[in-house]
C-alpha cells in the first residue's frame, strides 16, 4: 500500500496533510526515515512509525450501533443527518457504511463496517438471515394474524417470505398491541407494510437482532462501539467470514 494512503486510512489526516507529514521527515519505516509519499509499504511486515508512534493498520472495521430516531441509514444525504455523520469526523477515514437500512424513525441494532463481502453475506436473500423487530402498533393483533405472517403476506409488489409473529401484549382500552416480528428479508418499509396488511399502524419500531448479532442491553440509544470478541465469534459460527 502507498505510504500516504496507509497514513490517511489510519487517521493521520487527509492525503494533503499526510503528504506534509511524510515530506517533513516524520515517518520511519523499519527504522529508516522515508520522505517519498508513494513509497510502497508491506503492511504485513513493515514497521511504520510517525514521530516515534507505531502505525496500527487494520483492514476491516466493525461497529454496532443502537440507532436513534431522526437519522438515516446512509453514508451521505443532502437533507438529513446520516449514521455516518452521527459517528463524527474521527471515524471518517474508516470508510464505514451501514449494513442494510433502518427507517429514519426506526431505532435499534445497526452494523457499520467497511467490509463489503460481509455486508453482502448478511444481506443476501439466499442466506435468509433473520431480523427480529419489536413493534408497538395501533390496532389489535389477533391469533389468526400469526398464521397470515407464517404463510406470507401479499403486499402487492411482492409476497413476503414466511415470518414469525409473536403477540406480547394487547391493550384493548388503548387499541394497541405490542409484538415481535422475525423476517428473513428486508424490503422497503416491510414490517410497517406487513402490519398495515392486518389493519395495524406501526407507531414504534426497534430492531432487536440481525442474524446472530443481538442489540446489547447495555448499549444506550445513540451509542456505538466496536464488535467484541464474543460477537465476532457468533458471526463466524453463523458462517459469516
From TrEMBL:
Pfam families noted in UniProt: PseudoU_synth_2 (PF00849), S4 (PF01479)
PROSITE patterns given in the database record: PSI_RSU, S4
EC number assigned by the record: 5.4.99.-
Domain RNA-binding S4: 1-59
GO cellular component terms listed in the entry, alphabetical order: cytosol
SUPFAM superfamilies from the UniProt entry: Alpha-L RNA-binding motif (SSF55174), Pseudouridine synthase (SSF55120)
Record's keyword annotation contains Isomerase: yes
One of the GO biological process terms: enzyme-directed rRNA pseudouridine synthesis
Alphabetic keyword roster: Isomerase, RNA-binding
Enzyme kind, highest EC tier: isomerase
One Gene Ontology term of the molecular function aspect: rRNA pseudouridine synthase activity
Signal peptide: none
CDD domains, per the entry: PseudoU_synth_RsuA, S4
RNA-binding is among the record's keywords: yes
Family: Belongs to the pseudouridine synthase RsuA family.
Full protein name: Pseudouridine synthase
Organism: Globicatella sulfidifaciens DSM 15739
Amino acid at each position: 500500500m502507498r505510504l500516504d494512503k496507509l497514513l490517511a486510512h489510519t487517521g493521520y489526516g487527509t492525503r494533503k496533510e499526510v503528504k506534509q507529514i511524510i515530506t517533513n521527515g516524520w515517518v520511519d519505516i523499519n527504522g529508516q526515515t522515508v520522505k517519498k509519499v508513494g513509497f510502497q509499504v508491506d503492511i504485513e511486515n513493515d514497521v511504520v512509525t510517525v514521530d516515534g508512534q507505531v502505525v496500527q493498520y487494520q483492514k476491516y472495521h466493525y461497529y454496532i450501533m443502537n440507532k436513534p430516531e431522526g437519522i438515516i441509514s446512509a453514508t451521505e444525504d443532502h437533507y438529513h443527518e446520516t449514521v455516518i455523520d452521527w459517528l463524527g469526523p474521527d471515524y471518517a477515514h474508516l470508510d464505514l457504511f451501514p449494513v442494510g437500512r433502518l427507517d429514519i424513525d426506526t431505532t435499534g441494532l445497526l452494523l457499520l463496517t467497511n467490509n463489503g463481502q460481509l455486508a453482502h453475506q448478511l444481506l443476501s436473500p439466499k442466506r435468509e438471515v433473520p431480523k427480529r423487530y419489536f413493534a408497538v402498533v395501533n390496532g389489535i393483533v389477533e391469533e389468526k394474524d400469526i398464521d397470515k405472517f407464517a404463510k406470507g403476506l401479499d403486499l402487492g409488489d411482492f409476497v413476503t417470505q414466511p415470518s414469525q409473529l409473536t403477540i406480547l401484549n394487547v391493550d384493548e382500552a388503548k387499541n394497541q398491541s405490542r409484538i415481535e416480528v422475525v423476517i428473513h428479508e428486508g424490503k422497503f418499509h416491510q414490517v410497517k407494510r406487513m402490519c398495515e396488511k392486518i389493519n395495524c399502524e406501526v407507531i414504534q419500531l426497534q430492531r432487536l437482532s440481525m442474524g446472530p448479532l443481538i442489540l446489547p442491553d447495555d448499549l444506550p440509544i445513540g451509542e456505538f462501539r466496536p464488535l467484541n470478541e464474543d460477537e465476532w465469534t457468533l458471526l463466524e459460527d453463523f458462517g459469516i467470514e
